[in-house]
Specification:
Order of helices and strands: HHEHEEEHHHHHHH
Helix content: 55-70%
Strand order of the largest sheet: 1-2-4-3
Strand content: 5-15%
Number of helices: 10
Number of strands: 4
Structural class: mainly alpha
Oligomer: single chain
């Protein structure tokens, strides 16, 4: 299934905007977009590509709260909230990171996510459905999985991967745009023509979507690593039990906002299927099999 997270959607929008800006600014700065200017173009694409990715990273926690309706636990009001906060605190201490914000969001599907621009400024949130359907050992394993994401610096690494992908998307979109402008639109002037602008902007979107296969590969890889962290922090068999408990929900439609599914522990089942190449998560069976191979 195609599971492009809120970070990825925001990144794509920012990259398209920056691509339009670059198309306007580059000629004004005197950059020759072809020939000997190829190196300069690559440098500019790298700068704008990384900016787009890191703007998305900086906005990730705020957007996650808004899109899921997460309520951060400021002062625990129930025994369950006290347990959640203290469990996250203990797990964070075990991996030497600052205490994340802890939140709960109203969602009947069992799910959880972690996000934030810095591993010491993170947010870990769980759904009401997860708290209602899992025992405390399983919930702790899920929390440990999310703390694993934070401790591994997965958000920053994702931003770096996405930034590099952005750079090449913008670069090749403009190289193809120049070719179309000259070969198809017969523009022989020193300045890019309408063919270049239209083609490069369209390809920013087309190449940007296609390039998510690379980003989604990393997303699947980081799920395995977070499962390993969950197994170390909460116990291998508790982590396996938590993944098993997610299986029934994965066969039904998920109420998680589409933009947040790449950050969640469970994808659920969407209504539109794409090649596994674009899935943000490995299958639960693959994740369980991976954990079973680990030493006890």
């Amino acid at each position: 299934m195609l599971r492009i997270g809120l970070f990825l959607l925001t990144n794509l929008a920012v990259m398209v905007v920056f691509g339009i800006v670059m198309n306007v600014i580059a000629p004004m700065l005197g950059f020759n977009l072809g020939g000997t200017g190829t190196t300069s173009l690559l440098v500019m694409c790298f700068i704008y590509g990384m900016i787009g990715s890191f703007v998305s990273l900086l906005m990730s926690k705020w957007l996650a709260k808004r899109s899921t309706g997460t309520q951060v636990i400021e002062q625990p009001a129930t025994q369950l909230e006290v347990w959640l906060v203290e469990t996250v605190r203990r797990l964070a201490q075990n991996v030497n990171i600052d205490m994340p914000e802890v939140g709960i969001f109203d969602n009947p599907s069992p799910n959880a996510f972690a996000t934030g621009w810095n591993k010491n400024k993170a947010l870990v949130a769980v759904s009401t459905g997860l708290l209602q359907s899992m025992n405390r050992e399983e919930v702790e394993a899920v929390l440990a999985h999310e703390i694993g994401h934070v401790a591994n610096g997965d958000m920053v690494t994702l931003a770096l991967v996405q930034g590099v992908v952005n750079s090449f998307v913008m670069f090749f979109a403009r190289i193809v745009g120049l070719f179309v402008d000259q070969a198809v639109f017969k523009n022989d002037s020193n300045s890019p023509g309408m063919g270049y602008y239209i083609t490069s902007m369209v390809l920013d979107i087309v190449f940007g979507i296609a390039a998510q296969a690379v980003v989604m590969w990393f997303s699947r890889y980081r799920e395995y690593r977070a499962d390993e962290a969950g197994a170390r922090l909460a116990g291998k068999y508790n982590m396996i039990a938590a993944l098993e408990a997610l299986k029934p929900a994965s066969q039904h439609p998920d109420y998680m906002p589409q933009g947040m599914k790449a950050f969640a522990i469970n994808e659920g089942k969407g209504g539109f299927s794409f090649a596994q190449l674009f899935a943000s998560h490995p299958s639960l069976d693959d994740r369980i099999a991976h954990l079973q191979k680990l030493a006890p």
